[in-house]
Write a structure and sequence with these properties.
Elements: H1 3-6, H2 9-24, H3 36-40, E1 45-51, E2 54-60, H4 69-82, E3 98-105, E4 109-111, E5 123-128, E6 131-135, H5 145-156, E7 165-169, E8 171-174
Antiparallel strand pairs: 1-2, 1-3, 3-8, 4-7, 5-6, 5-7
Helix pairs in contact: 2-4
Amino acid sequence: MGLADREDAYVQLARKSMEAYVRTGRVLHVPDNLPEEMYNNSAGVFVSIKKQGALRGCIGTLQAVCPSIAEEIIYNAISASTRDPRFPAVEAEELEGLTVSVDVLGEMEEIDSPDKLDVKRYGVVVTKGRRRGLLLPNLEGVNTVEEQVAIAKQKAGIGDQEEVQLERFEVVRHL
């Protein structure tokens, strides 16, 4: 039984979408055999790709930009594998060794203090003017709220000492 056989429908869709695009340049059509909620619901989705445990690509949307979670996964899997500015595009030879996870984001909730964050349970969005940064919850190596907020600020180009608006959200992580 290979890795892909143990993945749930969300991760399988992300993997198939990434593989189809990397190998052929084509966008996968939404398949017919997915769980109902993937067709009927919409949400922000992040697709993360790792190679030997190290991040290889991660792109997502804070809120839905596609009509369904399935379409959101397809487009974000393509972006995570080919458009993450931190990494070169994934090559076909790499596909076998990659692991994929899919985070489906819950509703954003404004909070007035970092005290209302929990790095294991909540992701964070920091906003200052038009600059916005997000960090998913429960990430390896991020152990404190202070680290979580600092990394989100850094991603947005916001200085350490700048005041920001905070939002939190929960995710359902598919591995």
